[in-house]
């Protein structure tokens, strides 16, 4: 074989080798993607009936602070109807009716983000927030929102609305290392969550999504105003069947 023929075949060999490498990379990424989501699916099947005592947000808290978290799982019948109405009124008015996504809320969030020039609002439903709390990192990005959407679809297909609401109230953060409505109620009011009054429930939910700030600023005027707004809306909050 002449030198010229050998030189002409080198680009072809390079292209073939590069294509093979790309295929292997794609298959590797796909394998990892499927494995991770099979793990998510398995956990969702377990948590469909079993208490949830760990979440990604709890794990990140332990890693970043070297401190443990306070969280006590309680069942649906141990949670005051007042806090259920409060969280729906504040976080997701259409919770009982949508399939995991509030289209109007998403459209409003897109407009807000376009004006801000960054992702400053998410338009997330309770189901989406639960997906994020259980499995994802808090940093905002379009990749995370895509993962959040996929896991939200899985949650909505596998769990009842009642289970979603119960799980959310058991894992959401209410202060530094304080997770779940039972620990929050004990910490702030020294009573079980079942005995929360309307105003107490509204004041706890008003801390979301910035509980660490409001933990240190319980008399903040903005927190007080938000509590009043939630109280006015609670009567019209539709609970899931």
From TrEMBL:
Protein name: Biosynthetic peptidoglycan transglycosylase
UniProt key word Transferase: yes
Keyword check for Membrane: yes
NCBIfam families per record: mono_pep_trsgly (TIGR02070)
Family annotation (Pfam families): Transgly
Catalysed conversion reaction: [GlcNAc-(1->4)-Mur2Ac(oyl-L-Ala-gamma-D-Glu-L-Lys-D-Ala-D-Ala)](n)-di-trans,octa-cis-undecaprenyl diphosphate + beta-D-GlcNAc-(1->4)-Mur2Ac(oyl-L-Ala-gamma-D-Glu-L-Lys-D-Ala-D-Ala)-di-trans,octa-cis-undecaprenyl diphosphate = [GlcNAc-(1->4)-Mur2Ac(oyl-L-Ala-gamma-D-Glu-L-Lys-D-Ala-D-Ala)](n+1)-di-trans,octa-cis-undecaprenyl diphosphate + di-trans,octa-cis-undecaprenyl diphosphate + H(+)
Involved pathway(s): Cell wall biogenesis; peptidoglycan biosynthesis
